[in-house]
Amino acid sequence: MGVHFLAMKPAPFAYHAPTSIDEAVALLREHGDEAKPLAGGQSLVPLMNFRLARPAHLVDLNRVAELAYIRSEDGAVRIGAMTRQREIERSALIAERWPLLTGATRHIGHVHIRNRGTVGGSLAHADPAAELPAVMVVLNAEVLARGSRGERTLTAQDFFVSHYATALEPDELLTEVRIPDLPPQTGWAFEELSRRHGDFALVGVAALVTLDPGGSILEAPLAIAGGGPTPIRASGAEAMLAGQRPSEALFRAAGERASRELDPDSDVHASAEYRREVAAVLTRRALVRATAGLSASAA
Amino acid sequence: MTGVAIRLNVNGRDYDGNVEPRILLSDFIRDDLGLTGTHIGCEHGVCGACTVLWDDEPVRSCLVFAVQAEGARLRTVESLAPSETELHPIQQAFTEAHGLQCGFCTPGMLLTVEALLRENPHPTEQEIREGISGNLCRCTGYHNIVLAVQLAAEKLASV
Fold first, then answer.
1. Same-domain pairing of A139 and A110
2. What's the per-residue H, E or C state across chain A?
3. A196 at interface of B, judged by CB pairs closer than 8 A
């Protein structure tokens, strides 16, 4: 064993490497609040290196093979929690049926991060500025959780409770996310402003626009990252859009409406007021782009 | 703290180790395996200096525990040059195009570029800049690194 003079960043922990979901859940149950599941580690390990997180037990999910898959089924796709973000980015199935997810995933960190980072890890970490939580909210995804009392399904919207807080119990593991098919005639866009490419978003907007056969907006789900303690569904703006003909003026008004539904934080990167302003602009741009993509593909 | 026995393959060679679980892979590679080409910069996944290839994909070795690398197949910068006296085409390109100054970021940069050019042998300038965006260089302003990657792509295409 080498001499690690300066090499002891994380506090000591007991390491567990279960190979099944049941085994992982049993470990979480046994160690309760003392245990932390380790997925891709791209958020947890930095926190541990700074000793901002000091779990006594680390339950490494990287050997739970049954948690890594992308499975197409009738009307939906099921994605295992340990599926790497890079797999999502490279999946032809996802690119064809949920291009919003492909597009948004490219904004996550850098390629090194996406090679390790997982879908379930990003959701369970619940950073309010992260891309995948907002995308799952706008896609009406469902999250499956397995604990010692069995399995349950939550909507993505109910899953996110606050900053870095989810509805998961300490002995529950996020195992899967299920994304329903999009209705026909649906365009998408993901707009994000970050200080540099790969940084966390100051604000991110995930938008879908579904047009009816007459060309009016049937629905336009909007979810905003970095606008509050969880991804925010801009339901006021959505109500304003439904039934209307797409227009620049409508999208501008919807952006302004959406920004009033937010409760962003101020930090060294941007004030709350600035984030609100950016959200209005990005919402407008996302609506324009989602609709433009739609008419281009329909033409 | 008791150690955990691990076995992994680095640069085609099998290594056995005994690690406390909290030892980061980056520290293990340098201190236990003596492969000091892998540099350690920020130790929280921002700078990319500690980049290694895991199953040929770039990852940050400061964000993985060595114990997790049980059974892994890794490559470090030491795997690039074919011999003591020859450079890999990417290394040659960095030399010729002055793609480094202090050299601290270079090992991570080289491995990131190796993976980038394997996946995309003829990247645009924009794709190069995006591809290396996870590796910080505080000397060059990136200009000559981009030129070096373009030169490396030419060299690899003519091999």
1. yes
2. CCCCCCCCCCCCCEEECCCCHHHHHHHHHHHHHHEEEECCCCCHHHHHHCCCCCCCEEEECCCCHHHCCEEEECCEEEEECCCEHHHHHHCHHHHHHCHHHHHHHCCCCCHHHHHHCEHHHHHHHCCCCCHHHHHHHHCCCEEEEEECCEEEEEEHHHHEEECCEECCCCCCEEEEEEEECCCCCEEEEEEEEECCCCCCEEEEEEEEEEECCCCCEEECCEEEECCCCCCEECHHHHHHHCCCCCCHHHHHHHHHHHHHCCCCCCCCCCCHHHHHHHHHHHHHHHHHHHHHHHHHHHC
3. yes
